[in-house]
Amino acid sequence: VKTQQPLLPLIAQSERHSPTMTKRKPSASPKIASVKADGSLLKQMRKAQAQASGRTDLETRWYALMRNELPTAAKSEGGWPIHFDHCFMRVVLDNFFGRCWYEVLSKEKGAVKSMSDDQLAGAVKAAEKLLVGGRDMVIAQNRKSLDFRGKQGPGKKRA
User: How many angstroms separate the Cα of 140 from the Cα of each of 82, 88, 143?
Assistant: First the structure.
C-alpha cells in the first residue's frame, strides 16, 4: 500500500524552485486590518458588553426591590396598602411615567423588557425612594396610581 505524501511540502518545494512563483506574505482581511488600525470595532464591542452588564445590573436591582425589599418592608412596618410585587411594580411605574404604565410601554412585551436603560434606571431610583419613604409614601403613590387608572382601591365604593 502506497502512502501519499502531503501536498504542502510539495507545494513549498515547487515555490522554492520555480522562478515564476513569488513568495507572498499572508495578508489580513480588510475587517481585521481596520480593527487593528483604529480599534473602533473592539471599542464598540466593549461598549456593548458594558451596556449589557449595566442593563443586567439594573434589572437585578429592579427585581430585588420589587420581589424582596419592598414586600419585606411592607410586612415589617405594617399598615401598607400593598404587599405584592406586581402592586409595587404598578405603583412605581405609574408614578414614574405619570400615568398608567401600559399607556407608555408594551403590556404584551412587559414593562421591564419595554423600558430603555434610562427609563429602567429612573424607575429603579423611584422604587428606592419609595422604599426610603416607607408607608406614607406608599399610601400616597398607591392612591395616585389608582387615580391614573380611574379606580377607587380595595374596599371603597365609587360614588
Answer: 12, 13, 5
